[in-house]
């Protein structure tokens, strides 16, 4: 079993909690991946996409505006203030109301991202 536990936590809820194979984060110094038995560390994120893999397949993607990653004892935790499941934004089966809500949230996150200077 080559899996570890990933938690994505926002102020309002536990957004994602599952055993996975690989996660790729948009680190402030560049993208990085986490696998089982990764060494413990703590780092920050920039605005970008989080890619989550299970059984060698991409199962989820999330847009984050930043956050903190902690890895310790085969557990990875992402603490973030703003997160959107990108699968729900691009889904063809969403209702107009949920699409408009996601679209508004996505625009707010993009505006916030443009105000930050990551590569100066």
Give the key terms.
120 residues, alpha+beta, ATP Synthase, domain 1, 5-stranded antiparallel sheet, 2 helices, 10 strands, 21% helix
Q: What report would you give on this structure?
A:
The chain is an alpha+beta fold and 120 residues long. 21% of the residues lie in helices and 48% in strands. Strands 2-1-9-8-5 form a five-stranded mixed beta sheet, with no helix packed on it. A hairpin with a 2-residue loop joins strand 8 (67-72) and strand 9.
Strand content: over 45%
Helix count from the secondary structure assignment: 2
Q: Span from first to last CA?
A: 42 Å
Low-confidence stretches: none
Percent of residues in helices? 10-25%
Shape: globular
Structural category is alpha+beta
The ordered string of helix (H) and strand (E) elements is EEEEEEEEEEHH
What is the H level of CATH, i.e. the homologous superfamily?
A: F0F1 ATP synthase delta/epsilon subunit, N-terminal
CATH C-level name = Mainly Beta
Determine the mean pLDDT: 83
Strand adjacency order, main sheet: 2-1-9-8-5
CATH-defined fold name:
ATP Synthase, domain 1
Whole-number count of domains: 1
CATH architecture: Sandwich
Computed over alpha carbons, the radius of gyration is 15 Å
What's the story with the biggest beta sheet? 5 strands, mixed
Number of strands: 10
């Amino acid at each position: 079993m080559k899996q570890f536990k990933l938690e994505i936590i926002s102020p309002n809820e536990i957004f994602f909690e599952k055993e996975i194979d690989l996660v790729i984060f948009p680190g402030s110094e560049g993208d990085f991946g986490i696998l089982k038995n990764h060494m413990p560390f703590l780092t920050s994120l920039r605005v970008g996409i989080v890619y989550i893999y299970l059984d060698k397949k991409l199962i989820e993607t999330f847009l984050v505006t930043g956050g903190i990653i902690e890895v310790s004892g085969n557990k990875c935790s992402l603490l973030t203030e703003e997160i959107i499941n990108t699968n729900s934004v691009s889904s063809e089966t969403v209702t107009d109301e949920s699409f408009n809500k996601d679209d508004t949230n996505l625009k707010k996150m993009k505006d916030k991202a443009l105000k930050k200077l990551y590569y100066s």
